[in-house]
């Protein structure tokens, strides 16, 4: 008669069977992929990518350099203008950040729709005005609304600044900027809805001991038509010369004026001999009257000519070309062509054997 198993032995047997199943085949656990969640602020959505922001930064870094050069010349002192920051905020936030009074230029372009803002702090605005009027360029203690004359001066200067801005933007879009109107109270400026996102570019400006800021405000709806062009690859664009442009360049070169001079001869004298020269003295040249002389083009001897007269004027007749100079030009041209061919082979991945 078979022995009966106790309950403890049955439990041990079941546990051993479970362990064997786990060692023989691994149990497949369902893999749950975690979804990457990115925060998105519906009140302040990001309209422009990091690459587009970088392009805008490059444009306005160039604008800051142009502005620094212009204001240094106008104010007759060193003016430092630097790119400070780029932010994407709502128009109402920008409007509330401005103090009153201030100087605001509202401008538009012939390509982009809508208006934009160039804002200059009056702390540096009054220093610019004082310098332009012949003063020492000292800052005022308390800000006040500018007078009509002061507003007219700032309007003229901002017009020039906007032309420099148009020049800086020409790599992306070629447009003309026109100044629409000027305001001193930011609450009266409404170029976009309060909740519309804008691109705010801030430049720091230092004139003598006064430091301030210049702000550029572009609504997102204004820059949207050219958003595809706001890429750093546009800065490395290579323009192919067409046959028409080559012909136009050739025509411009053909209209260039060159200086021609006929050299009768040369001589070397000591300084003491030159000081002792008097009327009637004869200086011997290194050429004979029957020999042809050099005809220089931009101080470079090109032709050998004979001296004579034509219709009562002194004239020269071309006898021959300067073969030595032509040989030099041909050699330099061949060297240049050989260098270009060698560079092209390296670019194509070819290997050049020298033996």
TrEMBL record:
Keyword Cell membrane attributed: yes
Keyword hit for Transferase: no
InterPro entries in UniProt: CheC-like_sf, Flag_FliM, FliN-like_C, SpoA-like_sf
GO cellular component, one term: bacterial-type flagellum basal body
Molecular-function GO term, any one: cytoskeletal motor activity
Membrane topology, as annotated: Peripheral membrane protein
Any single biological process term in GO: bacterial-type flagellum-dependent swarming motility
Domain Flagellar motor switch protein FliN-like C-terminal: 253-320
Primary site of residence: other
Subcellular location: Bacterial flagellum basal body; Cell membrane
Keywords: Bacterial flagellum, Cell membrane, Cell projection, Chemotaxis, Cilium, Flagellar rotation, Flagellum, Membrane
PANTHER family per the UniProt record, alphabetical: FLAGELLAR MOTOR SWITCH PROTEIN FLIM, YOP PROTEINS TRANSLOCATION PROTEIN Q
Family: Belongs to the FliM family.
Full protein name: Flagellar motor switch protein FliM
Natural source organism: Tepiditoga spiralis
Taxonomic lineage of the native organism: Bacteria, Thermotogati, Thermotogota, Thermotogae, Petrotogales
């Amino acid at each position: 008669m078979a022995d009966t198993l106790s309950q403890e032995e049955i439990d041990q047997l079941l546990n051993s069977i479970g362990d064997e199943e786990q060692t023989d085949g691994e149990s497949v656990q369902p893999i749950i992929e975690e979804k990457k969640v990115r925060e998105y602020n519906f009140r302040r959505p990001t309209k422009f990518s990091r690459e587009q922001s970088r392009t805008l930064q490059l444009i306005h870094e160039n604008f800051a350099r142009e502005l620094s050069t212009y204001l240094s010349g106008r104010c007759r002192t060193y003016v430092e203008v630097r790119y400070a920051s780029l932010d994407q905020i709502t128009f109402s936030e920008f409007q509330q950040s401005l103090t009153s009074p201030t100087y605001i230029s509202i401008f538009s372009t012939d390509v982009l729709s809508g208006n934009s803002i160039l804002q200059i702090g009056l702390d540096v605005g009054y220093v610019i005005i004082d310098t332009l009027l012949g003063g020492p360029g000292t800052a005022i203690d308390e800000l006040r609304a500018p007078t009509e004359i002061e507003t007219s001066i700032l309007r003229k200067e901002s017009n020039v600044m906007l032309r420099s801005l148009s020049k800086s933007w020409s790599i992306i879009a070629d447009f003309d900027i026109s100044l629409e109107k000027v305001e001193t109270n930011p609450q009266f400026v409404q170029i976009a809805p309060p909740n519309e996102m804008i691109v705010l570019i801030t430049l720091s400006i230092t004139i003598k001991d006064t430091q301030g800021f210049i702000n550029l405000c572009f609504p997102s709806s204004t820059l949207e038509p050219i958003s595809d062009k706001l890429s750093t690859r546009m800065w490395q664009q290579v323009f192919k010369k067409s046959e028409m442009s080559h012909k136009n360049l050739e025509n411009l070169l053909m209209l260039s004026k060159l200086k021609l001079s006929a050299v009768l001869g040369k001589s070397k004298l000591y300084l003491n001999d030159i000081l002792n020269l008097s009327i009637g003295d004869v200086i011997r040249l290194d050429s004979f009257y029957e020999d042809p002389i050099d005809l220089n083009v931009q101080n470079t001897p090109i032709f050998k000519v004979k001296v004579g007269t034509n219709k009562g004027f002194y004239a020269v007749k071309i006898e021959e070309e300067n073969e030595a100079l032509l040989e030099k030009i041909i050699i330099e041209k061949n060297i240049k062509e050989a260098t270009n061919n060698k560079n092209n082979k390296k670019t194509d991945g070819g290997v050049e054997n020298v033996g």
